[in-house]
């Protein structure tokens, strides 16, 4: 059966219920109050069932039509919303039938459709322009590397395994380099006549325990210097390079080879090399002039010269003071320097001999000499 037929059948059934109400009135007259109430209750229950069925059918019909539920006129779509209260006065029983129109019953609210939010379209995000890296800092200026060649004339004191006579002249030659206040040896060669005893550039096949310590000494003039040297290259090895242990401050050197053909040559060597081109130039030297202001053991007013320079061993330095042609502070006296870059800025000494510079005044005490010098402006 279609929805329209269902609805018409329900309306017809309502008409039948009206007829049954009339029958209920007559029944109330015949059977009395209790029986009428019982019959009315049954009718009320049935009317409720019919109302629910009618409501369901109309909702389904509206859904098929695609319409929202709306109120209908009472003559067109009557629905029984109330109960049955028999209307009439029969034998003292009052029966009232209350019928509600569709406009009076609660409105069925169909929930509004939930709006569908369209998916968010991804936005194209333009990345910020890359920040250029900071300009690289200018590299530090390359430190000046200076070199010189120092030579020592040695003599053989003991020889084993080589045709070299004791007392034969030998030459030790070192290429020394410096940057700022440090020195090193890049090449060392030891020769006795035509016999090469050692060369540091020869190939090494084995172990090497090595060290070198070259020190610059003040020469008579600033453009020339002498050097001392400690050098060691020892260790079990084969091949061309031999072994050496040398210390000019001890006046000794030994060169030897422990693999066949074995040899050993001991040398006597002077502490200082022959004068060579100085490594410390004007930018690495302190030079101050002045006169003796007060002195004991010196002539007042004598002209004096202070010279100082780094020795090539980090902050170590050497100084000399000469007054009136006499050296009153020899380079052998230990001193301490403060530096401005690679150049000594001041010189001090503490101990048995003392030396200090304060502005334009220099004071020294060494042995029998005690003096105050007035220094010229640098």
Task: From the structure above, extract its key features.
ten-stranded antiparallel beta sheet; 16% helix; elongated; 23 strands; 378 residues
Q: What this model shows, in words?
A:
- The chain has 378 residues and is of the alpha+beta class.
- The protein folds into three domains: 3-104; 145-277; 282-375, no CATH class.
- Helix content is 16%, strand content 40%.
- The chain contains two helices and 23 strands.
- The chain has helices spanning 3-31, 33-65; strands spanning 89-90, 93-94, 145-160, 169-179, 182-192, 195-199, 205-206, 209-218, 224-234, 237-238, 243-247, 252-257, 263-268, 276-277, 286-296, 303-310, 317-323, 326-329, 336-340, 343-348, 354-358, 361-366, 369-375.
- The longest helix has 33 residues, at 33-65.
- It is elongated, with a radius of gyration of 62 Å.
- It starts with a helix and ends with a strand.
| Count, helices | 2
The number of distinct β-strands equals 23
Largest beta-sheet characterization: 10 strands, antiparallel
Q: Into which percent range does the helicity of residues fall?
A: 10-25%
Radius of gyration: 62 Å
Secondary structural class: alpha+beta
Task: Encode the helix/strand succession as letters.
Answer: HHEEEEEEEEEEEEEEEEEEEEEEE
Shape annotation: elongated
Percent range for β-strand residues: 35-45%
Number of domains: 3
How many angstroms does the end-to-end distance come to?
128 Å
